[in-house]
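Narrative summary of target 7.
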Amino acid sequence: MKFNKWTLGLAAVGVVSLASAAKADEKLSVVQTALSSTTISGYVDTSAHWNPGSGPGNAYYAYGGGIAGSKSDGFNLNVVQLSISKPLDESEWASGYKVDLWFGPDANTLGAVSGSTSADLAIKQAYVALRTPVGNGIDWKMGVFDTIIGYESSESPNNPNYTRSYGYTIEPTTHTGLLGTYRFSDEISMSAGIANTFGPTINGRAFATTPPTPPPNSNITPDSTQSYKTYMVSAALTAPQSWGWAAGSTLYGGLINGFSAGSGVFAAANTAGKQSSYYVGATVATPVTGLKVGAAFDYLDSRSSDDPASLYQTGNDYWAAAVYTSYQATEKLSLHLRGELATSQNGTLPGNDNTQIWALTGTVQYDLWQNVISRLEVRWDHSDETDLFVGSAGTINLRNSVLIAANLIYKF
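Modeled conformation, tokenized:
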């Protein structure tokens, strides 16, 4: 083993021994090897919102500022994400980890905390990653991980538009549990997992306060001492290269069923109870270079009870459908359009039963600066049943809400 001159000098006067120096050097080498495979990344997400002709309360969709309009008509720090990870390598018994930390107002909206107060801090993801050599290899995540369904991501830089869709709003965001993913081939993969709850509360539990009501004519003896769990499954199909211009197109579907202390910003979805979320979506390449189209459908069956024992109580239904178009015009310029319809049944939005919101969002992205995503977006939301949006007088008296937003994100 080679030593530097400073170590040899200290050994010559008896300050250190070469044996201890060798052990210290070996430990340092192990630490350096571990750090060399660790990556640090993240982003800073900022925005400016202007709501012409309306008051502060307009956003029923996630991260839009909420009904209180905390992001309206001003400049905003949305979130800072810091990611530290060691991805799985190609070995049979590979191991790694990932930690995503959120700082800022959007961390409070995410709600991935272990207590009742988030204080502008959330653990978006924190899991140990493992691979077991079964077949093509099963990749495991244990800890806190992102939900397995949805067209859009919690991470704004990964989405075609700046503001989130209503479909994203009624989906779960994170889970604490165990998830396994198996890739049958380059074209087919599947994920399945179990988690504590449907909602994002870290280490949350769903206990029945009273024994659950068994089905009619059942001999099942209820047990209220065990916590209920959330179960999830999803599958993805990818078009092979032999499909020509359609190569790389994807079809995705998933189901999540469990109990939650809340999910999304809709009224009944903020209450605890049984939650079932269904999703199907697709992204399709086209013969036009740079043009992709997509579609997504979300359905949430949200029970209004705060007790998992109430399995048969009438619930509240939400569904949202969206179509997407993205066009990469030049290396720096891309154009994105999203149209959607969201329905809240049983009067769970202000106003009448079966409230519907139509929304159209257009986004221009031009990456002028290195490592910076710069977007200008115009969004129009319309309620076709009743007034939902706050007017300039501070009362709910508008059926239309318009947002003009600028979004700057620095990725590091």
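The first helix runs from residue 5 to 12.
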